[in-house]
Write a structure and sequence with these properties.
CATH class of the largest domain: Mainly Beta
Number of helices: 1
Mean pLDDT: 75
Radius of gyration: 20 Å
Shape: elongated
CATH topology of the largest domain: Immunoglobulin-like
Number of strands: 10
Strand content: 25-35%
Strand order of the largest sheet: 3-2-5-6
Low-confidence stretches: 3-7, 129-142
CATH architecture of the largest domain: Sandwich
Structural class: mainly beta
Largest sheet: 4 strands, antiparallel
Distance between the termini: 65 Å
CATH superfamily of the largest domain: Carboxypeptidase-like, regulatory domain
Helix content: under 10%
Order of helices and strands: EEEEEEEEEEH
Length: 142
């Protein structure tokens, strides 16, 4: 009887994803390049992911530059993402405040300019969730 055993080396990688001011980025995406294997960071920017031994991780977050990091057998990868994608316009759905909404459409649509967002004082989009209506973001590089 002939038997073959193949073992794929797995490595558990964990760490924190932060911005350039050392603030955690909750909800950042971490994907093993070339696969569907991935995770997101928790509220404190922490993540854990099992990956192949020679994996490259792709870190991304809305409004920030994407960063690729080779694992190279490391168990801890702490990453700082640089701000890089400026938001030109944001389309917001789910609010029916008559002063700012088109209430005659089947779905409420609010348009908030980047200038209006700057006036909120929030540097990270996820902190805008407290405004109760950030559901869809459309952005482009300026």
């Amino acid at each position: 009887m002939l038997s073959f055993n193949f073992a794929i080396a797995q490595n558990t990688v964990s760490g924190t994803v932060k911005d350039s001011t050392n603030e955690p980025l909750p909800g950042a995406n971490i994907i093993e390049k070339g696969t569907n294997n991935g995770t997101t960071t928790d509220f404190d920017g922490n993540y854990t992911l099992k990956v192949g031994a020679n994996a490259t991780l792709v870190f991304s977050y809305s409004g920030f530059e994407t960063k690729e990091v080779a694992v190279n057998g490391q168990n801890t990868l702490n990453v700082v993402l640089a701000e890089g994608v400026a938001l030109d316009e944001i389309v917001i759905t789910g609010s029916r405040t008559p002063a700012r909404s088109n209430t005659k459409s089947p779905l409420p649509v609010d348009i908030v300019s980047a200038k209006d967002l700057v006036s909120t004082g929030q540097a990270i989009l996820t902190k805008l969730y407290s405004t109760k209506y950030l559901l869809l973001i459309r952005y482009k590089r300026l």
